[in-house]
Amino acid sequence: MRIGFMLTVSLLFFTFLPAVSADTSALWGIDGEVWDSYSRLPDFSYAGYHAGERDLPTATEIPN
Questions:
Q1: In terms of Cα–Cα distance, which of 59, 34, 35, 37 is closest to 46?
Q2: What is the Cα–Cα distance from 46 to 37, expressed in whole angstroms?
Q3: DSSP type of residue 52
Q4: What pLDDT is recorded for position 17?
Q5: Contact 28, 40 (CB under 8 A)
Q6: Cys staple from 29: which of 2, 9, 25, 33, with CB 3.0 to 4.6 Å?
Q7: 16-50 pLDDT, tens per residue?
Q8: Which of 39, 16, 17 is nearest to 26 (CA)?
Q9: Residue 18: its pLDDT value, please?
Q10: Distance in angstroms (rounded) separating the CA atoms of residues 11 and 5
């Protein structure tokens, strides 16, 4: 019983530990103020259907 309790407490401790030690990225900053278009962090804002320039197509037929 005591081993199970200690194991549970240990697992909970190590589960929440990374959230406490989270840090701000040197490539991004707190609100993105550090980001530069020539940095190592790529810009994926164009990704998506036709680079976001067209609306998604509407299905004309609903499959069964």
A1: 37
A2: 13
A3: G
A4: 61
A5: no
A6: 33
A7: 666 665 677 777 788 878 877 777 777 787 888 88
A8: 39
A9: 61
A10: 10
Structure tokens at 54: 């067209």
Q: The tokens of 3 are what?
A: 């081993």
Is 22 within 8 Å of 30 (Cβ atoms)?
no
Whose structure tokens read 């194991």?
7
CA distance 3 to 15: 18
Give me the DSSP letters along 12-59. Answer: HHHHHHHHHT----TTT-SSSTT--TTSSS---TT-SGGGGTSPPPPP
Residue 35 in tokens: 């980001």
The backbone region for 40, taken as left when phi is positive above 0, alpha when psi lies in -120 to 50, beta otherwise, is alpha
Here the tokens at position 1 are: 């019983």
Tokens of 10: 């240990």
